[in-house]
Amino acid sequence: MKPRISMITLGVGDIQRSIEFYERGLGFPRMDSPPEVAFFTLNGTWLGLYGRDALAEDAQVGAVSGGFAGFSLAHNVSSEGEVDQVMSQAASAGAVVTKSARKTEWGGYAGYFSDPDGYLWEVAHNPLFWVGPSDKPA
Predict the structure, then answer these.
(1) Which residue, 71, 78, 9, 80, is CA-closest to 45?
(2) Given strand 109-114, what is the order of strands in its sheet?
(3) For residue 64, how many other CB atoms are within 10 A of its CB?
(4) Residue 103 and residue 58: Cα distance in Å, rounded?
(5) Do 77 and 121 belong to one domain?
(6) DSSP symbol at 120
(7) Which segments constitute the VOC domain (predicted)?
(8) Which residues span the domain enclosing 14?
(9) For the segment 9-54, what is each residue's pLDDT rounded down to a tens digit?
(10) What is the rounded distance in angstroms from the CA atom of residue 74 to the CA atom of residue 111?
C-alpha cells in the first residue's frame, strides 16, 4: 500500500448543517455532488460528508458510538496569527473551541475545535514542520 490518504469521509448527523459549516463557515471549496453527500477539495486530498447512518451501513458497522472518537484532524498553518484567525473563523461558523490556541510544550502554537458533529480539528503552527507537501523545505 502506498502511504497516502486520498479522502476523509465524516459521518454526519445533518448533512445540510455540516455543508453550511464547512462550505460557508470555513470556506472549503465544494465540488459538485449528489444531495446525499458533499465533497470538498483540500490541498492534496478530499473531505467527504455523508450521513452517519448511511456511512455506517456502507461499512457494515454500528452507527452508535459515544465520546471521543480516538482521532483528530489537523490543519497546519504558517504562523501563530493564522492559528488565531482560523480558530476565530471556526468559532464564528459554529464550532466549539475545546482548547484555545496557546504555546505548546513541543515549541509550537495550537488549539482545538470541534465541528457540529463533534469531530476534533487541531489548528497548529509548528516551526519545525512544513504546512503541506508543496511547502516542504528543499
Answers:
(1) 9
(2) 73-76, 120-125, 109-114, 96-103
(3) 8
(4) 41
(5) yes
(6) E
(7) 4-126
(8) 1-61
(9) 999 999 999 999 999 999 999 999 998 999 999 988 999 999 999 9
(10) 10
